[in-house]
Specification:
The structure is a homodimer.
Chain A lengths: L1 E7 L8 E7 L7 E10 L2 H7 L17 E9 L11 E5 L8 E5 L3 E3 L6 H5 L2 H14 L6 E4 L5 H13 L2 E6 L5 H6 L3 E4 L10 E6 L3 H10 E9 L7 E5 H6 L3 E4 L7 H20 L7 E6 L3 H9 L6 E5 L1
Parallel strand pairs in A: 8-9, 8-11, 9-10, 11-12, 12-14, 15-16
Antiparallel strand pairs in A: 1-2, 3-4, 3-6, 3-16, 4-5, 5-7
Helix pairs in contact in A: 3-4
């Protein structure tokens, strides 16, 4: 039996995106077979297409896709958490752009009843990344987080989580048109012009930009503060003032989901699920979706994400 | 009543070191009045003499000295922890090069019976710094720490602490003559030539060098590892590869004792005292002392420390 999938024919522009088929295997061990409903598009998919972000060794090398939603169609003999017909969402190190997937059950979350499968496909990467980044920032109730790219998928998720935790958010964007979205979610908004900014002292920072903001980030942190780096859209090599690191006793921490071991991902998913289910069902947390497109428009969706004009997630449906 | 003290007449070479007097005040509040027996010399004292490390606002600006030992001579009306005649050691943000000091009792530790007052003056800065740095490295039993300047005061303390904790240490030095000291304390030793090194992957790093080692340090860390920076003898501005920080999920953390609030210092001292007293009395931990000199030889002691030939601490006695 065959499964539809997206392949990249080498590295390049959207012309390398190809619709293809692959053979389907039965779910084995703790795997669950999932009929995929929708796939969330990520910056990682774009970087992989350009050849800048190769898949980890244990993931398909030429089939992109890091998160998905769908319905359980088969259950491996050692899988105990889900039954056929269950609505699930999850993360993989690659290969999510398929119409059918076998995934270890530890990487799956149940879709909260309040959410559609389309909304669910926009959830795992951004909410897990935001959840993890906030924990790593060590900022708690009453603290202030500086959140860059606050209108992005991870940004909009982080604002919602911080609101629940009683953490104040100062959210930045480089597009004046996105200021209202950030404020609408309950954060204060700050427009960044010419890649430089000066803000009030903050307890922690969640940043996707990297080198371009490094100096101003270090300056913005209070004594004992933490800069959590979850992306490097503004460059990967930067000069750092170690004397500020010492004098203010700062931490700089890099993190990504994709390269983690299955055990580490499972632990994060477990912690997030325990805390999150109620919030999604009550509507306190909700993925912010920029657009939902049929898979046939994947190339246009790539271009839209690269234009930096989107607010929240882009979701592709089979 | 007058107290002897050392003053720096501006910034410069050892010619700015001057013997002087200051007036003595009665111990007030939670202060304890101490007749100072000995003072440990620190890199911070040298940097302050050169004008590179000004004292914090709440410390004497021109009297150096960060650690001391002595005997309690007076007790403020709100001080409850020590009695007249007690042997104490402690840290201050400056001013320890005095023959009499009023110090908040929270910054004092009782001198373990197994140690002399001279040994005690060599203890607080290096053991507290090492204790704190090991905790911040997140390396625990069975792990491997790369420890730079392992024959230094903090280095020799860190090796002893790690041995107690069951942490393996790979200790570096730039002087082949110091390799034996490092091995004698129970660590493996590695000679660094031309400021560049390549070692096996490590769980954590404690570094005093900074910029000159930054690239090799980042390369040496395992996934999830932490680089703790406690000094910047090799430069304060360095280029950092943020992509390695993300891909390996690394932490870089700067830390110093001197600029911390009294509450933070008190918390560290409390944690260390609880754990450390038994180890000192059993002889598991012992300050490594390079030399003990009369205060009149302070200038020569500065020059000796600057020559980078010392192993362990230099102590000055009144």
């Amino acid at each position: 039996m065959n499964t539809k999938c997206i392949r990249y024919d080498g590295a390049g522009g959207i012309e390398v995106i190809r619709f293809d088929c692959k053979s389907r295997h039965p779910a084995s061990g703790t795997e669950v077979g999932i009929s995929i409903a929708a796939v969330g598009l990520n910056r990682g998919d774009i970087l992989q297409r350009k050849g800048f972000y190769p898949a980890p060794k244990d993931a398909p090398q030429d089939i992109p896709g890091l998160e998905f939603s769908g319905v359980v169609e088969a259950v491996g003999k050692d899988a105990t958490k889900f039954a056929i017909g269950d609505r699930v969402m999850g993360i993989v190190a690659g290969g999510a752009f398929s119409s059918y997937l076998n995934v270890d059950e530890r990487l799956l979350l149940r879709v909260p009843p309040a959410l559609s499968l389309t909304e669910a496909a926009a959830l795992p990467e951004v909410f897990l990344t935001a959840f993890d980044a906030i924990k790593r920032s060590n900022v708690t109730k009453g603290g202030l987080i500086l959140l860059h790219a606050a209108a992005s998928g991870v940004g909009t998720a982080a604002i919602q989580l911080c609101k629940t935790y009683g953490i104040e958010v100062l959210g930045t964007t480089r597009s004046s048109s996105k200021l209202k979205t950030i404020e609408g979610l309950g954060a204060r908004a700050h427009l960044i012009v010419d890649n430089t900014f000066q803000v009030q002292p903050v307890d922690g920072i969640i940043d996707f930009i990297g080198a371009a903001y490094l100096k101003d980030n270090i300056r913005a942190l209070k004594v004992g503060g933490t800069l959590v780096l979850v992306g490097l859209l503004g460059g990967a090599r930067g000069e750092i003032s170690l004397s500020h690191l010492l004098a203010k006793r700062l931490k700089v921490e890099g993190t990504v989901l994709r390269s983690r071991s299955i055990e580490e991902k499972a632990e994060l998913i477990r912690a997030f699920s325990t805390e999150g289910e109620g919030y999604f069902n009550r509507g306190d947390w909700k993925p912010v979706i920029h657009g939902v497109y049929p898979m046939s428009e994947l190339g246009a969706a790539h271009e839209e994400m690269e234009s930096n004009t989107t607010v929240g997630k882009i979701v592709l449906c089979w």
